[in-house]
């Protein structure tokens, strides 16, 4: 199998997140802002002059038991600057739990879960005690000196200022700081003779908040900012993380972070895209839990891990699952290997097995075999048609018991196979079965004994409704005729639900149809047209459909071209974006025909509610969809055919 760019490949998006410092109630959980600095930005001297340009976050109210804090980091460690309001400081020469202290809690992801550490930062008192830093895991009573921490304080009216530097060497998993969770709490003790904790003010709300409930830090740059930009731009701000994996998948030796969020896979890292961008891929699943498994493992033997997923697809005809290997090999995310491992239809269940065998040297071996069947046999099994590079499921009656694949430098090649002594008769011809919306397929009915008659419109649509489970209440729309594929006789095109159906006397001998699901929602399929955009005498199919991005929506223009009985996209371009009724940009799309050929031109059009200063997106994540033209910066673009694509000079 040759690696191929995924059809929704995401290129780099440079992220820049502005951090806002807001006053917060003492019980509200607040993410801590962490600025990026250099080793010369801050000097730990107890005074906060170096921090004058950095916004501080405030916790607590009044003249007693409240504080303001700012955080920053460089390549060596974490800086803390705090301004504490405290009517009376209680300190001893041997610091303990019952005296004034500022406690920094940090937690970073380890291979077995979050690993946390607390740093107890005691301000000194002139003439009686020095500033001290202790450390311990949360809940541990025995605290040890935090060697390497620099800490100084200075008295100010109504309290004190404290400055500290915590080296990353003391923080668990220092290479994963971009995913660090953190909180600060102020412990206030006001009576020296009978010391008790009078108040605890925490950025995490509850003083004893568990590490898993702490919010992740917010940074102005780096992987954390890139991830925040991805969430914002894709409408996934509140979506939970389904998988959170760490490993060296690309570029330098630093680890990347690979996450599954809301049905999308995103890759960020300190060394990935210069630490400022991300790649992402929509996985084509209906729900997040359709990503059933995810792990990182070096399959190719090059020292870089690949992303291994098990993806489930569901539609009206059944359920399929695929074992997929993805890689980040310079041009974004590529699909490198794809094997069908599960099918459930009305007839029964077919299971496949994939086993990864590591070698002492070089690439691993991938063994693909049958996992058994239920309710089907060679006479009743109908194989579904998958994607172009999908390996079909292995069958217990097939010619081979096992097929073995290995990376050979540019592709996964079959390096061994084992014949099946129990091989039996061939299976029933394939149908479209449970193929997904992202895998357009051609469906051909079984040939009759006598020469078949050409299917009528009603016959074809009845066949489609039966195969795809489309109810009779869903009517046909956008009927048109054009020569889009084989032969000279024009084909019939019609929209049925959110899909486009192509058929005709010259297509598959009048016995088949082509089905492409652009969207799962009928109302989101906005237009279906045809035009000869390449000048080859055949029309291309031009579809406009709407896609929801959380609180935003966008319209996509998709141009498809037949190549034999297969189809390939020539262009995907965003032509409109909406935010309710008040804000929208709609490009002006024109198809101009001269003679037999047509030219596609897209102009920026008009904006309503948005301008250069209020446009909320930091950039466009190119997930295989060309960006929307913005009226305040872009000019009209005219597209021409070039090497199986429509391009704009």
Radius of gyration: 31 Å
Global outline:
elongated
Number of helices: 2
The overall strand count is 41
Largest sheet: 9 strands, antiparallel
How far the N terminus sits from the C terminus, by CA atoms, comes to: 33 Å
Determine the fraction of residues in helical runs and give it as a percent range: under 10%
Q: Estimate nothing, just give the exact number of structural domains.
A: 3
Nearest-integer average pLDDT: 83
Strand content: 35-45%
- Secondary structure category: mainly beta
Query: Regions with pLDDT < 50 over 5+ consecutive residues?
Result: 5-27, 431-451
Q: How would you describe what is shown here?
A:
The chain has 649 residues and is mainly β. The protein has three domains: 217 residues; 187 residues, Immunoglobulin-like (Sandwich); 207 residues. The protein contains two helices and 41 strands.
Outline the secondary-structure elements.
Layout (H helix, E strand, L loop, with lengths): L3 E2 L27 E4 L20 E3 L6 E8 L3 E9 L15 E10 L2 E10 L9 E5 L7 E2 L4 E7 L2 E9 L13 E9 L7 E6 L15 E2 L3 H11 L7 E7 L8 E6 L2 E6 L9 E4 L8 E7 L8 E10 L2 E11 L4 E12 L4 E9 L7 E10 L7 E3 L15 E8 L4 E8 L8 E4 L9 E3 L13 H12 L7 E7 L8 E6 L2 E5 L9 E5 L7 E7 L8 E10 L2 E12 L2 E14 L3 E12 L2 E12 L28 E5 L4 E2 L2
Parallel strand pairs: 2-4, 2-14, 25-28
Antiparallel strand pairs: 1-22, 3-4, 4-5, 5-11, 6-7, 6-12, 7-8, 8-9, 10-11, 12-13, 15-16, 16-17, 17-18, 19-20, 20-21, 21-22, 22-23, 23-24, 24-26, 26-27, 29-33, 30-31, 31-32, 32-33, 34-35, 35-36, 36-37, 37-38, 38-39, 39-40, 40-41
């Amino acid at each position: 199998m040759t690696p191929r760019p995924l059809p929704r490949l995401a290129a780099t998006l440079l992220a820049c997140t502005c951090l806002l410092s807001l006053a917060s109630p003492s019980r509200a959980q607040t993410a801590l802002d962490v600025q990026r600095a250099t080793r010369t930005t801050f000097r730990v001297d107890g005074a906060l002059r170096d921090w004058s340009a950095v916004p501080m976050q405030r916790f607590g109210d009044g003249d007693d038991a409240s504080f303001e804090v700012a955080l920053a980091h460089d390549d060596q460690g974490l800086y803390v600057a705090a301004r504490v309001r405290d009517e009376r400081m209680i300190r001893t020469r041997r610091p303990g739990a019952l005296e004034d202290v500022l406690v920094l809690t940090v937690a970073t992801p380890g291979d077995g879960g979050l690993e946390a550490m607390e740093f107890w930062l005691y301000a000194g008192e002139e003439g009686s005690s020095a500033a001290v830093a202790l450390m311990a895991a949360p809940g541990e009573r025995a605290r040890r000196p935090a060697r390497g921490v620099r800490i100084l304080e200075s008295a100010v009216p109504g309290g004190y200022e404290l400055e500290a530097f915590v080296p990353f060497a003391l923080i668990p998993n220092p290479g994963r700081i971009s995913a660090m969770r953190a909180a600060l709490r102020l412990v206030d003790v006001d009576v020296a003779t009978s010391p008790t904790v009078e108040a605890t003010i925490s950025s995490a709300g509850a003083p004893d908040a568990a590490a898993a409930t702490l919010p992740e830090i917010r940074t102005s740059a780096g992987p954390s900012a890139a991830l925040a930009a991805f969430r914002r731009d894709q409408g996934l701000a509140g979506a939970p993380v389904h998988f959170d994996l760490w490993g060296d998948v690309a570029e330098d030796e630093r680890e990347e972070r690979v996450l599954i969020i809301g049905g999308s896979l995103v890759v960020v890292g300190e060394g990935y895209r210069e630490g400022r961008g991300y790649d992402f891929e929509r996985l084509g699943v209906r729900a997040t839990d359709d990503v059933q498994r995810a792990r990182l493992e070096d399959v190719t033997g090059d020292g870089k891990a690949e992303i291994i997923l098990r993806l489930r697809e569901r539609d009206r005809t059944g359920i399929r699952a695929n074992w997929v290997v993805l890689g980040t090999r310079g041009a974004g995310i590529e699909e490198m290997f794809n094997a069908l491992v599960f099918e459930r239809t009305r007839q029964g269940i077919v299971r496949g097995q994939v086993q990864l065998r590591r070698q002492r040297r070089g690439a691993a071996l991938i063994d693909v075999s049958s996992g058994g069947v239920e309710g089907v046999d060679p006479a009743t099994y109908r194989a579904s048609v998958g994607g172009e590079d999908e390996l079909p499921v292995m069958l217990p009656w097939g010619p081979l018991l096992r097929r073995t694949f290995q990376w050979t430098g540019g592709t996964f090649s079959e390096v061994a196979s084992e014949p099946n002594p129990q091989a039996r008769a061939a299976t029933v011809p394939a149908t479209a079965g449970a193929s997904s919306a992202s895998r357009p397929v051609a469906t051909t009915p079984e040939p009759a004994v006598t020469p078949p008659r050409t299917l009528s419109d009603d016959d074809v649509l009845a066949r489609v409704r039966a195969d795809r489970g489309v109810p009779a209440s869903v009517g046909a729309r956008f009927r048109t005729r054009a020569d889009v594929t084989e032969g000279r006789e024009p084909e019939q095109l019609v929209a049925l639900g959110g899909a486009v159906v192509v058929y005709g006397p010259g297509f598959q001998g009048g016995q088949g149809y082509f089905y492409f699901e652009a969207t799962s929602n009928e109302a989101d399929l906005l237009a279906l047209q045809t035009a000869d955009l390449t000048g080859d005498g055949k029309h291309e199919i031009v579809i406009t459909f709407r896609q929801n991005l959380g609180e935003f929506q966008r319209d996509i223009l998709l141009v498809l071209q037949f190549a034999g009985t297969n189809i390939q996209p020539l262009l995907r371009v965003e032509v409109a974006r909406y935010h309710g009724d008040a804000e929208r940009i709609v490009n002006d799309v024109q198809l101009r025909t001269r003679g037999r050929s047509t030219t596609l031109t897209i102009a920026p059009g008009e904006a309503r509610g948005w301008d250069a200063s209020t446009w909320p997106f930091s950039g466009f994540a190119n997930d295989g969809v060309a960006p929307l033209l913005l009226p305040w910066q872009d000019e009209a673009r005219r597209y021409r055919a070039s090497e199986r694509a429509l391009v704009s000079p």
